[in-house]
Design a protein that fits this description.
Layout (H helix, E strand, L loop, with lengths): L3 H4 L5 E6 L5 H14 L14 E7 L3 E7 L14 E9 L3 H15 L9 E6 L9 H8 L1 H7 L4 E5 L8 H13 L3
Parallel strand pairs: 1-3, 1-4, 4-5, 5-6
Antiparallel strand pairs: 2-3
């Protein structure tokens, strides 16, 4: 007979990637909070993520969000094989980070294990006065070229993990990604 562990399917894993300081930790904390309480989260200052952080969300099916710190970029590929969907966070208030984020995104999209996983690009921190609009970000990122070359379905959303803007849309995207496993 087979082992009992083989019968238990682990929940799908969604990778949460992006440059350091983009707001990944606060984003996942807010999403977990919305799912749990539908209330306002505490205003604790986010702690930069060094390493990996696992968060379970119920959408209503359970998924695991694996947040990988921005400084871990070189080892991101070791997590691609377990990925069911990808969230890529870009700090829309930091123009100097845009080009490096674009290069990171292109590298992630070209990875064979991710060839068919749905991708959500989040332009975060739109609550800050210096943020670039979605039109500006798409232009700087050359999103039209990226989308036309990518094998994955790519969705883009503007979010503010701090004030909650766009987080309901993120949850909706996660639910949709769950219904359409690759």
């Amino acid at each position: 007979g087979g082992s009992a562990m083989a019968a238990v399917r682990s929940p799908p894993t969604f990778l949460l990637l992006g440059a350091a300081g983009g707001g990944k930790s606060l984003l996942v904390r807010r999403l977990r909070h919305i799912r749990r309480a539908r209330g306002a989260p505490g205003s604790r200052a986010p702690v930069p993520q060094v390493g990996t952080n696992l968060t379970d969300l119920r959408l209503p099916r359970k998924v695991t969000v694996r947040e990988l710190g921005g400084c871990m970029g070189p080892i991101w590929p070791s997590y691609y094989s377990e990925c069911s969907a990808l969230l890529f966070v870009v700090d829309a208030s930091n123009p100097t980070q845009v080009s490096s984020s674009c290069i990171q995104l292109l590298s992630v999209l070209s990875a064979a294990p991710l060839a068919s996983v749905p991708v959500l690009v989040l332009f975060n921190k739109i609550d800050l006065p210096c943020y670039m609009s979605l039109v500006e970000m798409k232009s700087l990122f050359r999103m039209q070229d990226i989308v036309s070359c990518a094998t994955q379905p790519i969705t883009m959303l503007e979010t503010s993990a701090r004030d909650g803007t766009g987080l309901a849309d993120v949850l909706q995207w996660l639910r949709t990604a769950l219904k359409d496993p690759s």
